[in-house]
TrEMBL record:
PROSITE patterns: GNAT. Residues 1-132 form the N-acetyltransferase domain. The keyword Transferase applies. Keywords: Plasmid, Transferase. It comes from Qingshengfaniella alkalisoli. This is GNAT family N-acetyltransferase. PANTHER family: SLL0310 PROTEIN. The keyword RNA-binding does not apply. The lineage of its organism: Bacteria, Pseudomonadati, Pseudomonadota, Alphaproteobacteria, Rhodobacterales. GO terms for molecular function: acyltransferase activity, transferring groups other than amino-acyl groups. It comes from the Bacteria. Signal peptide: none annotated.
Length: 269
């Protein structure tokens, strides 16, 4: 049986993601769920959760697929594929994006997804501590959400209204009037995303402003290969540790990203 999942079930599925080595944030559940409460799905076998997937409708034209996991004991039985078909119907006529791991990219192509680039996860160390700029406030949200809309090519207001609001494990730093970066504590280290900056100088300044309140550990950032941010983080000693292909079924979004930018989260784009 395939059905929608609840928020507590989503939190449990994020535990599956941790077991898969995806290293989700400590408090991703509420922000993810806020994006589209009807966009998270479970497959059950004899009352036991067997597989999960998300197809989040961000706006009337664009959706994003993620969290596609089938528990090991149910793999090879068609459970995941049945859930895949069920969940994709939620997107309707929208185009659907995803970030696919190398092992699954050929299967996604068979389902009508076309490659639109790649995303590389880099791991690095904190730079010399700088004084933190101010954290995002509610008054900043319209500007930040509009900047993100231009960056990705569609509206993610529901998701970002929650994502940009501070919580104990996630903070968004605002630099000047245009640049910002969200830092979130994960089970290992801290992920940076989205990062949005018009210049290398401002991007470097943001990378050096990880809030001390989030604790220690390595930094991770998911960088599209067409962003010069890739060259910048390499110059700072970051090393690639993981790669996905950005794939889209349907029309590609018309995005106008800044010179330096990173992905918010591979699960929601």
């Amino acid at each position: 049986m395939c059905r929608n999942m609840t928020l507590p079930e989503l939190v449990r599925v994020l535990g599956w993601a941790r077991q898969e080595g995806w290293n989700p944030g400590l408090d991703d559940g509420e922000a993810f769920f806020a994006a589209d409460p009807e966009g998270y799905f479970l497959a059950e076998i004899e009352g036991k959760a067997a597989a999960a997937i998300s197809v989040v409708n961000h706006d009337q034209e664009h959706a994003f697929l993620g969290l596609y996991i089938c528990l090991p004991e149910f793999r090879g039985q068609g459970v995941g594929h049945a859930l895949w078909r069920y969940a994709l119907s939620h997107a309707g006529s929208r185009s659907v994006g995803l970030d696919g791991v190398p092992a699954q990219q050929a299967n996604y192509e068979k389902s009508g997804f076309n490659r639109a680039g790649r995303t590389i996860r880099y791991k690095g160390n904190r730079m010399a501590a700088l004084a933190e700029d101010r954290l995002a406030e509610d008054a900043d949200l319209p500007r930040l959400i509009e900047a993100d809309r231009r960056m990705v090519g569609y509206d993610r207001q529901r998701f970002l209204t929650s994502w940009f609001r501070p919580c104990g494990s996630r903070q968004t730093v605002v630099l000047g009037t245009y640049s910002y970066a969200t830092f979130r504590r994960c089970h290992e280290g801290i992920k940076i995303g989205p990062l949005h900056a018009p210049s290398g100088e401002e991007a470097m300044a943001l990378l050096a402003r990880c809030p001390k309140s989030l604790g220690d550990g390595p930094l991770y950032i998911d960088v599209p290969d067409r962003s010069p941010l890739e060259r910048l983080v390499r110059s700072l000693g970051y090393a690639p540790v993981f790669e996905t292909a950005r794939m889209v079924k349907g029309a590609r979004p018309t995005a106008k990203p800044p010179a330096y930018y990173s992905v918010a989260t591979l699960e929601l784009g």
